[in-house]
Write a structure and sequence with these properties.
Blueprint lengths: L1 H14 L1 E3 L7 E12 L14 H12 L6 H5 L6 H9 L12 H7 L1 H20 L1 H7 L6 H6 L1 E2 L5 E2 L1 H11 L7 E3 L15 E9 L2 E12 L3 H20 L2 E15 L3 H8 L8 E4 L14 E4 L14
Parallel strand pairs: 7-8
Antiparallel strand pairs: 1-2, 2-8, 3-4, 5-6, 6-7, 9-10
Helix pairs in contact: 1-11, 2-10, 5-6, 6-7
């Protein structure tokens, strides 16, 4: 199944059009693509490069808690959302350190600046962990995924718990065509640190199996998509576990699927590697609700990937 992902990478390299982007990095891009993963045949954690499953677990649990502050992530040594919180801080009147304009690109191109940036971001993360007031001001990312999934705000001032609602429908109305969760709330998009890339997902129950289809409007294929595949596969497993169903397929549908220009060499290296067997997912069978799962309740076994491949993140 991993060949589905590698075929996408190759298609973008071969056929992608050059496009500018918000970060100024530039991409090769295609529009409209779909991959399918049979979750009965193994857990889709890529093997052509090591994908850090601990980060995927902690991020998904963060979403499921309805949390939007990076403090929880930092407590679990997860730094994948740091840059967006840090960007908000350095643009604020409270920041008085070195100039951090375009820090993402400059950190790649300038070794001396990269060290200054690292020091400033480390100080920022430490302060998020230690200072409640600072964390409340600059650790929060706005109404990102966790908020939309668990606390969607209505025009009447009420909240909708979309995850709980969809779980209840899967249990009691499994043939419904409304098993949908949306993270794209047009009213909240302007105030989010990063508008949702994975915007909407739908579940489908057939033959005692739960499948999930994700629509992703924007996909960083080298860095982000391996996380997205594993995260939604894990979410499908967790909900299937609570609903006492087997897992079916994860269907990944893309809008703009792109490779950043400064990721091309890394993608080519990954494409040169052989595919290995997917690992197995093990869940704590004593937990009955997906909201009760903690890090130690979710494990993978027999994961033997190629080494990780580093690449800069575009902010």
């Amino acid at each position: 199944m991993e060949e589905n992902y590698l075929k996408l990478c190759q298609k973008i390299l071969d056929e992608g059009v050059e496009k500018s982007d918000r970060t100024g990095t530039g991409t090769k891009s295609i529009f409209g693509y779909q991959m399918r993963f049979d979750l009965q045949k193994g857990f889709p954690l890529l093997t052509t490069k090591k994908v850090p499953f601990g980060l995927i677990k902690s991020e998904l649990l963060w979403f499921l808690k309805g949390d939007t502050n990076i403090r929880f992530l930092l407590q679990h040594n997860n730094h994948i959302w740091d840059e967006w919180a840090f960007e908000r801080y350095v643009k604020s009147p409270d920041y008085s350190g070195p100039d951090m304009t375009d820090f993402g690109l400059r950190a790649v191109e300038d070794k001396e600046f990269r060290e200054i940036y690292r020091q400033e971001k480390d100080k920022f993360c430490q302060k998020i962990l230690e200072d409640d007031e600072f964390s409340a001001s600059y650790g929060d990312l706005g109404n990102v995924y966790g908020s939309q999934w668990r606390h969607w705000q209505t025009k009447n001032g009420e909240t909708i718990d979309q995850i709980q609602d969809v779980v209840d429908m899967i249990k009691h109305s499994p043939d419904s065509r409304r098993l949908i969760v949306s993270a794209w709330n047009p009213e909240d998009v302007p105030t989010m640190a990063l508008p949702p890339c994975h915007t909407l997902f739908q579940f489908y129950v057939a033959d005692g199996k739960l499948s999930c289809q994700l629509y992703q409007r924007s996909a960083d294929v080298f860095l982000g998509v391996p996380f997205n595949i594993a995260s939604y596969a894990l979410l499908t497993h967790l909900i299937a576990h609570e609903a006492q169903l087997e897992v079916g397929e994860f269907v990944h549908t893309f809008g703009d699927a792109h490779i950043y220009n400064n990721h091309v060499a890394q993608v080519q290296e990954q494409l040169s590697r052989d595919i290995r067997s997917f690992p197995e997912l093990k869940l704590n069978q004593e937990k009955t609700s997906l909201f009760d799962f903690e890090m130690e309740d979710i494990k993978i076994e027999n994961y033997q990937p190629h080494p990780a491949i580093k690449a800069p993140i575009a902010v």
